[in-house]
Amino acid sequence: MRLERRLLWLLVGLALVLAAWLVLSLALVWFSLEPAQQQGVAILLAPSWPFFSLACLLSLIGLVVGLRYGLQCFARAPGRLLDETRVLLSATAPQGLSPGLLAAGALGSSEATELAGAINELAAQRDRLRAGVAEQVAQVSRSLQQEKNQLAALVAELAQSVVVCNLDGRILLYNRRALLQFRAKSRSTGLADGAELIGIGRSIYAVLDRLLVAHALEAIHQRMARGATSPSTQFVTTTTAGQLLRVHMTPVRSATVTDVGRDNSLTGFVLMLDNVTRSFEEEAQRDQLLQEHTDGSRAALAHMQLALDKLSGVGAEPSQREASLAVLRDELVGMDQRMSAFTQRATQGLTTRWPMEDMSGADLARAAQRHMERHCQLSLVTEEVDGALWLKTDSFALLQALSHLACRLGEELDVRYLQLRLVQVDDRAQLDLLWTGRAVNTETVMGWELEPMRFGGQRTPLTVRDVVARHAGEMWFERERVRQAAFFRFSLPLASPQDPQEAGELLPTDSRPEFYDFDLFQHNEQANALDERQLAELSYTVFDTETTGLNPTGGDEIIQLGAARIVNGKLLRQAFFNHLVDPGRRIPEASILIHGITQEMVAGKPRIGDVLPAFHAFAQDTVLVAHNGAFDMRFLQLKEKATGLVFSQPVLDTLLLSAVVHPNQSSHRLEAIAERLNVNLRGRHTALGDAMVTAEVWLRLMPLLQQMGITTLKQAREAAQKTHYARLKY
Predict the structure, then answer these.
(1) Superfamily designation of domain 526-727
(2) 244 phi/psi in degrees, rounded to 5
(3) Given 3.30.450.20, 3.40.1180.10, 3.30.300.180, 1.20.1250.20, which CATH number is that of 158-275?
(4) How many CB atoms are closer than 10 A to CB 587?
(5) What is the rounded CA–CA span in Å between residue 559 and residue 608?
(6) Which sign, positive or negative, has the C-alpha torsion 677, 678, 683, 689?
(7) Cα torsion for 27, 32, 36, 42, to the nearest 10°?
(8) Edge-to-edge order in the sheet of strand 379-385
């Protein structure tokens, strides 16, 4: 029973005892008097009854006022002081809270104020000790953190897709290539760009077959049992988007392995993924082309052999000899045509096989300088090169084209000095190869452009025109009569230091540390039910909605859905979900004043039936968290029949849990809770902004719940249901 209730019942009982004692005393006095005396007393007190009643009323009012003051001083103020002390002592509470827990007037008594001051002094001492310990821990772990960051940076920049998982298949680390690899699934809808398929704490089995991974792990275990020091395996699989992946798996082993063959020596696995869809198709096409060429050549050779036999025969008629010669001519022409087609298709494969990559203009100029000096014995000056430019180029083929033209200039025009010029014009780059002296005519330039490229002793079936087409650009020849110079000009595509196509898809570079969480190696899946799991071990999807109004059953609709993820006790700020939704109805002006979302902002956006499947996948295998979650969940539940999606995960409500932790507080609005827990309010009344604030609030509430003995999901849900806020329905 709460303190103020106990005090209330104590005062009520005391009042009843006093009243009973007074009545009993008066009764004893009354019955001890003679009848005549009783009559005299009654006559004497008759005029005083109104004053006596008024005195009783005033006494009652005074008692109520005194009782209220007593409750304020001795019950509510200590309760509020207790709430603030719990926040101050919370393991996640920030150090150095405000000097006073409560104002002296709010506490209601000097003793409580002095107690608050003493608590603050203890908290200050605790903060100083904690700061000292934190500094020592920081010194010890700084080198380890640096190594982890270097590893994350290295993996993030790899051209190959890399995913690191623990034994349960939970993702601990991934790089940008892996993120893009599995985003292809939802490019058709554009929703969440497929980001719901991969993320810290998510299961790799959302994109790879569980049995296939288990089979590969079993193969690694067998090789470890045979004494292999670096066991690995690989397999080929397909994604839901139809891509063909070659997966190379290597184990992550414990740092203290004693028995090589034991299962507990393996703590996870690394997956390196290559998209072999295009190479597989190209190899299949080449195999088919080679088979067709082989079959055709075999038949032609058979016909030619038969014709030669007839020609070499004794007594062959002139008509037979002529027919045999015609067969030979036809078969030779056919073989030549097939060989030309084979060469042409092989050359087409070369024009599309090399990847387009980003390269700075300065690096390209230096590479061209070395390439021409080595293969053409020419000097190249790179004085007019904008080093800030980045090109989207097949640098290998482009250098071959430049060297081919430079060598031709040296061989036919005796040019020995060239100049490279690279500038930006509008949204393209202009690369000029200049020389001074003799000019070349247009017909010769066209011949150089169409012939297979050669430079030094090297040759390639590609032409300069093939390279230009590969870059979706142009190449032409011009003269500068004032300078008596001429130049070849290439128009090339630009690229930022980060691929523009991927710029909107990749996470910010300063968020790289959130790409990994090696602590998850320590958390394996438990066999017990989810309700028995510790709160700190669970993964959470914290979400919020913005709606057209407050009546979900009256036709109001969701217009924005935002969510963030908490994994291993950390808020992953870049693993978020955020989408505007076309509600299919007008947004009232009163709602626009709150969230700022206008009709124009949602026009053309996907409907809720398209957004919910992506959000359902994003929230899979997590516990849902929301503030006043009954409101948001009602909107989702009303869409179950239309979408066929049921959000059956457990749901935690920060409003209810705040009432559990701080029962003496009068307000449990999100702003009030954030202020109590020292959480900064950012992006209020936007779905993603409120979800982020709610996530930080939940991270601060967890240790406060643990102090109260509420450590599991089941205990948290049961405690929330006991608050009077749990009776709210929508």
Answers:
(1) Ribonuclease H-like superfamily/Ribonuclease H (3.30.420.10)
(2) -100, 120
(3) 3.30.450.20
(4) 22
(5) 8
(6) negative
(7) -20
(8) 379-385, 417-425, 428-436, 485-493, 474-480
* C-beta separation of 658 from 675 below 8 A: no
Encode pLDDT of 445-465 as tens digits: 888 888 888 887 778 888 888
Q: Which DSSP category does 667 fall into?
A: -
Q: How far apart are CA 255 and CA 265, in angstroms?
A: 8
Check if the beta carbon of residue 576 is closer than 8 Å to that of residue 562: yes
Neighbours of 393 (CB within 10 A): 26
Please report, as a single letter, which amino acid is at residue 439: A
Tokens of 108: 């209601």
Q: Which two tokens stand for residue 5?
A: 């209730």
pTM of the predicted model, to two decimals?
A: 0.54
Distance CA 542, CA 626 (A): 6
CATH of domain 357-494: 3.30.565.10
Residue 509 pLDDT exceeds 50: no
- 279: closest CA among 248, 233, 341, 236? 236
- Cα separations in angstroms, 619 against 35, 230, 577, 648: 86, 37, 10, 11
Going by C-alpha positions, the residue among 422, 429, 556 that lies closest to residue 487 is 422
How many CB atoms are located within 10 Å of the residue 59 CB? 10
Per residue in 220-261, pLDDT (tens digit) is 888 888 777 778 888 888 766 667 788 899 998 876 544 444
Q: Which residues are the active-site residues?
A: 685
Cα distance between residue 610 and residue 92, in whole Å: 38
Separation of alpha carbons 370 and 359, rounded Å? 16
